[in-house]
Amino acid sequence: MAKDRVIPLSPGRKTRSSSHLSPSKPSAQNVCPFSSQTESQELIRCLYSSEEPISLATLISSLPGRKPQILEILRLVGSLNSPMFPLLIYGGPSNGKTVSILQIFRYLNRPFVYAGCRTCYSPRILFDSILRQLLLHGRNPIKGNSGTKRCEKPSEFIDLLRIALVQAINALRERNLKSGSEEVDRGEMIYLIFDNFELLRSWDRNSNIVPLLLRIHEILKIPEVGIIYISSSTPDAYFLCTGSIEPITIYFPDYTLEDLHGIFMRNQPNPKLYSSFLSVVLKPFFRVTRRVDELSVAFQPLFQKYCKPLVDQSVVPDEAMKRKLFDNLQPDVTASLNDLFMVPSQSSYQIEQEGDLQKKGIRKSNRKEASNELDFHMSMSAKYLLLSAFIASRNPATLDASLFDSSGGLINRKRNKNSQMSMDRKDSMAEEILLKGPGSFPLERLLAIFQCITSVAESMVEEEQCENGAAIESESVGLTSDVLLQMSALCNANFICKSGSCPLEGSTRYRCTVDEEMAVRVAKSINFPLSSYLYRR
Ligand SMILES: Nc1ncnc2c1ncn2[C@@H]1O[C@H](COP(=O)(O)OP(=O)(O)OP(=O)(O)O)[C@@H](O)[C@H]1O
């Protein structure tokens, strides 16, 4: 794509860019102009990447493993002044989504506003950050709504955002007209980037901020504004019930071994030495994690240890030297791998409880401990999701309604004489299902079961919290966050597999592949009464 080629504007585009804004919306006339040209210039400068622009070749070589995604994003963002559909960039954590988009804008050298939902951790802070970037950090007053006034309500935010955007677009347009042919035309588009969008869902369960931001393009109706969402959750997490037009998605897959090799080899003063180090550490660590941040934290001290026997670190190691360095490093690799692998899978509450038991001299038998233990890490919500999938695969769907009450809890299944016949029928259905093996289920059923069992678990935890006055931390709360991300992780781990689509509905069905022994171990690790949820003969 030619970076600075100005695409001739279509007639529609000319009309729109000359005056797209309808009278009801703030126009150049009813928006307070910049008080000085310096302010206008400062705003424009603030909207560009703070780093020097780079070439396309540098962009691609600086981000190993991301060339296809970069080219795809560039194609979708389009040439100068071309309107774009909203984009959703998604993929696993720490796999280069943020760095890629920021470097892309450095290459494009176009104005953008970046709002990270990790640092801007509440709607108010997020709104404030976006408006400040557009309004010269609060120094440019929009009459009646000064930049210093904090914006609380979404409707207020949308109004101020529209005003600020129109003002900024007009400033860009003016700058382009004034600079004429002396300067390169940098266009009139402004891009809003929402990073870590998945976090928004955990801010407030009843908040309407997610649907609002997902519809922001439709609400603003300003073609000079491009919207980019970055998320580590899949698109399904957002668009099942918002009713908004789905953005174009770009998936960032996990890095391959070669990609990670390329990433870690960048800017190494002694590439041959570092390459011999990577040949020792990368493969074993790759089996545990593909996250660049985790790998770089693990590699840093290991490389220091690897180089310790060397007097001169610019030396190119021969085979004998490599073997010696490897032998020296080997015990640390194992220890570091264990550190990375053994992420605590128990909630701090459980740990506290066990600590209490030990203090009281009550020791669990080793056998029980071993049977409860999982030899891999899984988050609390992934465990609940896996158990929901197991229940969905084992129980006939027609029995769900009799298993869960309307509030999501487990119905007390005491048989009475009147219901004995129907229970017998249900039991024979359960038996048939057992014989057929794990059944398939649609995503909706899985989510419904997940919702039911987590609501029970959360209320149990709250009750225990009240009883014990103990502090329960993150893992036990917010079980429902990132459920679709967990789903894709469980599919990747082959605990849940896709099992074709329903010919009538066309929707994908899933099947749980874990056996009962494994499900029981997962259930025990979170004290979940699995057997009460399973139909048996
Ligand atoms: N291809 C790459 N080349 C160079 N560095 C990379 C690459 N991919 C990731 N990194 C580095 O890994 C770290 C994490 O990357 P980044 O923040 O872009 O990930 P992310 O996908 O946005 O993560 P999250 O979803 O957790 O926000 C950064 O320090 C980044 O520089």
TrEMBL record:
- Compositional bias segments (type: Low complexity): 18-27
Q: What is the protein's given name? A: Origin of replication complex subunit 5
Give the GO biological process terms: DNA replication
Report the residue ranges that make up the Origin recognition complex subunit 5 C-terminal domain in this protein. Answer: 378-534
Query: What Pfam families has UniProt attached to this entry?
Result: AAA_16, ORC5_C, ORC5_lid
Domain Orc1-like AAA ATPase intervals: 63-206
Q: Where in the cell is it found?
A: Nucleus
**Gene Ontology cellular-component terms listed:** nucleus
Q: Where is the ORC5 lid domain?
A: 274-326
Keyword presence, Flavoprotein: no
**Per the record, which residues fall in region Disordered?**
1-32
Q: Which family does it belong to?
A: Belongs to the ORC5 family.
Q: Which UniProt keywords apply?
A: ATP-binding, DNA replication, Nucleotide-binding, Nucleus
